[in-house]
Amino acid sequence: MSITAPARGESRPDRKKGKGFGITRQERAAALFILPLMVLLTVFWIVPSLSSLFFSLTNYSVVSAARWVGPENYLRLVDDWLFWRSLLNSAYFTVGNIPLLLVCGMALAIALNSARLRLRYLYRVVFYLPLVTSSIALSMVWLWLFDPHLGLLNLLLNAVGLPSQPWLQSTQQAMPSIIFMSVWGGVGGTMLIYLAGLQGISEQIYEAAQVDGATPWQSFFHITLPLLRPVTLYVLVTSIIGSFQIFGPIYAMTQGGPAFATTTIVHQIYINGFRYFNMGYAAAQSWILFLLLLGLSIANLRLMTRGLDV
Amino acid sequence: MTIPAHVEIASPNWRSQTGLYLFLYPVLSLVAVSMLIPFLWMFLTALKPQADMFQVPPLIFTLSYTMENFTRAWTRGNFDRFLANSMVVSTSITILNLMVTSLAGYAFARLQWRLREVFFVIVLSVMMLPGLIALIPTFLIVKAVPLAGGNNLLGQNGTGWLDSFPGLIFPLVGSGFYVFLLRQFFLTLPKELEDAARIDGSSEFNVFWRIILPLCKPALAVVALFSFQFSWNDFLWPLVIIQSDRMRTVQLGLALFRTQTQINWGVLMAGTAIATIPTVILFLSFQQYFVRGIALTGIKG
Predict the structure, then answer these.
(1) What is the nearest CA distance from A21 to chain B, expressed in angstroms?
(2) List of chain B residues whose C-beta atoms are within 8 Å of the C-beta of residue A251
(3) What's domain A96-263's superfamily in CATH?
């Protein structure tokens, strides 16, 4: 290690040599290094996202060419009760799913954050297990558990003397059942993010609070909760975006039924776009979803950062 | 301290609260058991002989466990083909993702170039887009790939990359998340490493390939694991572009297997187990990388 660090100018040696348009060796390398990424992002993300706005203003279907129809698709949406129903169902799922995810995830994280708890690694692995499994596989397993005749849940209910429930086959119970499955499957992810947040909080703050006579509840409400606020915000925004896009379990378990009780907005986009091939109409629906998610995320950020010096 | 033990849950500062642990262990164990029961029930159902399927109450333990459901899923359900397809697709996506995102992450972290911040903001904004907004146009782009699937030079008259491996693979390569994750890791390495190599006359690519990458194995492992898991479990994209039975991935095969035949729970659970086992094994073998990756970026797998 006899080489000392080079002088600052050395890492961009040939800018002044007038080669090309003053392009340095590192700039040439950088252009090549980001080229594959930028090509892929442009072709599969940037161009599609922008052009979906164009398609939403046409009556494109795979069999016929796109014809400009202006805002017609959006006007049709207003009168489409199934679209409103699917928005309502998505909101129902989100509102049911997220508070449970946050509260249970935080509770599990606080419980597992204790250094003295043996087996905490084992618990962590077990709680996270559903998150490495696909939503389709989980749907199949829960379809079987929810089966009204031979499913494990009804067998357990019967064993303690309670009547069987129709679960997914009832308009009343279908969405709560899917919410239950999603909380079961998602809580490990929220827990892990909260655990990472908790590990960033210094023990000394709690010790100081204890010296000042704070009760554990006070420490929780005045230290843990405020310091976890950025984590909560992150989890809230990402899980709202995720929950509004639920599709796999709907497709695999209920097909949107019974009687449209579980059809969500992404399920409607799929059916309109790829079963009826009304791609212009489906593109309009996905733009409404995008604007809705953008609005919700911004509102969240406002709400959660209010009173913070951000 | 006169505070009852259960109130202590609120504070992580609960040393020497033996009463609390007496409460915590049963609760956590109960949650853990309820997490595991669906998986156990899946395996038990898959291993039961058909004759035992309709017993009420069900036999939890039987002496005659059998692989018959697995064999039926494997051969009659075509799960051998689905599994192979998923392996090809997920492995390709993972390898391509590693190459594309590590090169870009390095350029954003370590190279000096004009417009770097502008491009980084573009990459991050793309990361924020919900995938759904691009779904329909991406389908049309994949359908219009020139000179593929019977298309002419202008991408007309054929099916392009629909119903093919490239169609399953390329749209899932290149993610802002992985670029961001790797960039954060590259930033932690000492700059002297590269400068020394540059003085010795190495090309920029050699600096990256021979000096930097070997130091980044933990971060690359995180990207590889997430990338594999995500593509293995992806469903909407294969559902949209795959038409033929022999091109189905394992998730797509599983979902359509249920809708196309009368439900046979034993065979269905065997298929579900086949679709689940690879990522579960990967997770159990490398779980410290998963945990580190989530802590680093907050990605939910």
Answers:
(1) 12
(2) 235, 239, 255
(3) MetI-like (1.10.3720.10)
A125 in reach of chain B (CB within 8 A):
yes
In-domain check, residue B58: yes
- Asked whether this complex has an ipTM greater than 0.90, the answer is no
Residues 157-186 of A with CB under 8 A from B: 159, 184, 186
State the amino acid at position A222 in one-letter form.
H
Residue-range definition of the domain harbouring residue B39 = 5-66
Give tens-digit pLDDT for B219-232: 899 899 989 999 99
Lowest mean pLDDT among A85-89, A218-222, A253-257, B59-63: B59-63
Q: Tens of pLDDT along B58-95? A: 666 666 788 888 988 888 888 899 999 999 999 999 99
Residue B250 pLDDT: 93
Q: Which of B16, B39, B66 is the last residue of a domain?
A: B66
Query: Is there a contact between B294 and A46 if contact means CB atoms under 8 Å apart?
Result: no
Residue A150 to residue B51: CA distance in whole angstroms: 14
Average pLDDT over residues A138-146: 94
Kindly report each contact of residues A141-145 with a partner whose C-beta sits within 8 Å and lies 24 or more positions away, as own/partner. Answer: A141/B38, A141/B39, A141/B41, A141/B42, A141/B269, A141/B272, A142/A177, A142/A181, A142/A249, A142/A253, A142/B38, A143/A168, A143/A252, A143/A253, A143/B258, A144/B41, A144/B42, A144/B45, A144/B265, A144/B268, A144/B269, A145/B38, A145/B41
Q: Is B292 on the interface with A (CB under 8 A)?
A: no
